[in-house]
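User: Hi! I'm working on a homework problem where we have to compare a predicted structure to a textbook description. Could you give me the structure for the chain below?
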Amino acid sequence: MYKYILLLLFTFFQTEIYSEEREVQSCKPPWDVYTLTECAINMHPSYKLELYRTKEMQGRKKIAEYFFPSNPIVGGSLASRRGSVDSTNLSGGGSFNQATNFQLLVSQEIFVGGKREKAMQIADEEFRSQIFRLETIRRSIYFSSLSNLVRFQNAKKEELLSQELYQLSQKLTTIARARVKEGISPGIDESLSESEELRMAKVWKNSIRKAEQTKGELNLLLSQSQNMEMDWNPTFNLYLELSDDKDSLLSLALENRPEIKLTEKDIKLALLRYEEVRLQKVSNISVGAFVQNDGFNERVIGGQISLPLVVWRDFEGESLIARSKSEQSFETRDLVSRTVKQEVIQALSNYLTLKEELAFYDQRLLDRTSNDISNLTEALRMGKIRVIDAINNQRILVQTKLNYLQTKSDFELAQIELIRALGLPEGKLVIRDKL
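Assistant: Happy to help. Predicted structure tokens:
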């Protein structure tokens, strides 16, 4: 996966960045897993931001590769000398001597104590650290897009189911009114059936609202129009043999998650920066050469060297800051490790419990529930069941089907989260298209 990231970065740096219009055009149906996830990743501002920061790291590396800390300094001076010499002559006057002095100086500051090599090490580690940061963002967007897709697909199914159930409750109300009108049932049955119809109407409208919200989130993630319809209906299957030892799973996550590798790189960077600050106590020297003319046809060529004295500014404050940041980086690694462990424990618990819960809903139970819901109307029409009993039975059967959809959605989300939490490659999650 990291080779893929490096190849992507190479392509990014060797070609021009695509325009926003071209990116939008590349995200269009027909959808599959690759198209959807790549569209979500490439269009996400967080990923773009980190990609541009990676290019910034290249600039920092070029700065670190400079052979000298600053450009050479050229200086010069020009002076005019005029003097008088007392000499007695018949006219009683004196003679004057005049000369022009000039000096040309060239100086260059140079690295000492391995500062350039240390700066190059820091630049290389910053680039490697940015690769793991980019991979962290990429995986987060990848699994987030799949989760949004699952929520949207299940919200659509829940909307269709609740609409069908609402229509059945309307039929139940119609039959109850007819029975009350004929004097077969008491008047309260009509009120009860109408109340149940209102309850199912609320369930239906809630499902519509939920479907619209998840659709908007998905279209926003893909940078698509809010009017776009998605008919893609995939299924998710997790092919993974999980160890019974939870400690081994935690170790697996700590080994695979890019967030952990990122904190380790940050620790190395902090230590390198601390070493760089310590090297600042050894000042760079400046060497130079000069040529002079004293005005009497005497030319002087020489050299000079200057060394700043570390007296007032001894870099103790900078060293204290750098040492503190290195200590903070160790604590950050422990904090991230604890967060990763918590995510794994929660994801594993959700996956195992939801897998067992989903096993309760066998296909025969679901088929029998659908048949019983459909037969309630006919049973009420034939007088085989009372209105209150029909309402109670319908409520139980409806809740069973809604619970099944919710459990199925939660289980699919748990599979996605488990792959992400363990840091496993995306190939462990098999997604089959059902067009």
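For your comparison, note the following. The first helix runs from residue 2 to 14. DSSP finds eleven helices and six strands in the chain. Good luck with the assignment!
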